[in-house]
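Researcher: I'd like a structural prediction for the single chain below. Treat it as a standalone chain; there are no partners to consider.
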Amino acid sequence: MYEKSFSRGDVTHTNNTAGVFETADYVARADDIAALKIIAEAKQSTIRLSGDEKRRDYELTKLEISNLKLVLDSFAKMSKL
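Model: Treating it as a single chain, here is the predicted structure.
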């Protein structure tokens, strides 16, 4: 299991007709990249999003896992520049 927490000040809240969205931008560290590689190699992966009052489990689709692999591959290539 991999866990990533953010302080309230690092989270941006956006409200629209589709609901409330929370995002956080950060620079991935080596342990973040390692966790993403494990997720990308899994046949199925569930991400748990937790807040103060709610929790939601999200099952990644095969397309999302495939896209994650492409992003990680691109990151590795750019890191060599």
